[in-house]
Amino acid sequence: MTSAGQQADESRGAFSLDTTARRAVRQGFDAFLEAWETQIGDDFPLPAFSPAMAGDYRVRTRAARVRDVAIVHAHSESAMRTADTPHGVEDRVRMYVVRRGSWTLGGSRDHGEQTVSAGQFLLRHVGRSTPFETVPHTAAMVTVLPAPPLVPLLGNRMVTGAADAAEVRLLVAHAKMVNTTVNDLGPAGVRAAHSTLIELTKAVAGGRFDDAEPLLAPALAQAAKDLAQRRLADPELSPAMLARELHVSVRTLHRAFAAVGESVAAYIRHRRLEEARLALSSPSNGVSITELAAHWQFADGSHLTRAFKARYGLTPTEYARSTDPAGRHPRS
């Protein structure tokens, strides 16, 4: 028999919901409330939202719960706003990471009104829920965490800074992984995912993370992959550049990738080859092999051709012909 304590220890849930389609808007808010109730639960009560928001809820939402941590990714087309009603006691730590738009938090006993702008994060302990408001087209991640392990680091202060800070990148990368895998995790995986969320939030609060902690290796590797994806065409992209931007040593970065079964250089090369393959698959492709090689930072067309054939079993020209019924092929 599973005890109540064990059940709480292993509790998890997740949902993904898109209410931006015209036909989904009318029932969108009710669908969100139902998904939250069934997958996230009463331990994370929602505030009272404004009637205007309930009537025009155009938001893409991904949410996950791992024990006593909840993660919400929201991409809103409409504005979001809570109602002007009293909020209950909430002894929690909240972190806001805003990529686009802005998220404004109402004033409280300890803090005045605070706006988290695009490219910024805010981490703080809250003793009572506060109202919030966003502008349309806001993209943000909100994480709700237990107070006891974090308040000793935070006290009454707010920690703010750039969303591209190394520690924040690691937390966001891990949160994304949790969001997509939580329902498939076993008990040990749930505990590891939860512990890593807490440790990475501590790193944000303290401005550094323990790069020798093995639990953090997958998050570091994912953060490096996210950064590499944005810089694939950059001639400066390298393990050293990624390590520098994530504030770790190259050795630590290599160790993190080894833990997930590949090398940093191999990941970059494979992603560049995949982008070249996608370009060759495009019906409107008019680019030459030499141009592809230059764009994706291969030494020359011959180098790209050898790497492409080793990866996909065909040369770029052969691959383009196999995907083009008209028989067109790229220039060399």
Layout of strands and helices, then pairs:
Blueprint: H1 4-10, E1 12-18, H2 22-39, H3 51-55, E2 59-66, E3 69-76, E4 89-100, E5 102-105, E6 114-117, E7 120-128, E8 132-134, E9 139-146, H4 151-154, E10 159-162, H5 166-181, H6 187-206, H7 217-230, H8 239-245, H9 250-259, H10 264-281, H11 289-295, H12 301-312, H13 316-323
Helix pairs in contact: 5-6, 5-7, 7-9, 8-9, 11-12
What does this 3D model show about the protein?
The protein has helices spanning 4-10, 22-39, 51-55, 151-154, 166-181, 187-206, 217-230, 239-245, 250-259, 264-281, 289-295, 301-312, 316-323; strands spanning 12-18, 59-66, 69-76, 89-100, 102-105, 114-117, 120-128, 132-134, 139-146, 159-162. Helix 5 packs antiparallel against helix 6 (187-206). Residues 1-8 have low confidence and may be disordered. The strands form 2 sheets. The chain has a 7-stranded antiparallel beta sheet, sandwiched between helices. Strands 6-5-8 form a 3-stranded antiparallel beta sheet, with no helix packed on it. It contains 13 helices and 10 strands. It has 332 residues and is an alpha+beta fold. Strand 2 (59-66) and strand 3 form a beta hairpin.
Category from helices, strands and their pairing = alpha+beta
Q: What amount of the residues lies in strands?
A: 15-25%
Helix content: 40-55%
End-to-end C-alpha gap: 67 Å
Number of helices: 13
Give the beta-strand count: 10
Silhouette: globular
Specify Rg, calculated over alpha carbons: 23 Å
Q: Tell me about the biggest sheet?
A: 7 strands, antiparallel
What does the average pLDDT come to?
85
Order of adjacent strands in the largest pleated sheet: 1-2-3-9-4-7-10
Query: What is the H/E order?
Result: HEHHEEEEEEEEHEHHHHHHHHH
List unreliable stretches of 5+ residues.
Answer: 1-8
Organism: Streptomyces asiaticus subsp. ignotus
Domain HTH araC/xylS-type: 222-322
Keywords: DNA-binding, Transcription, Transcription regulation
Pfam families: HTH_18 (PF12833)
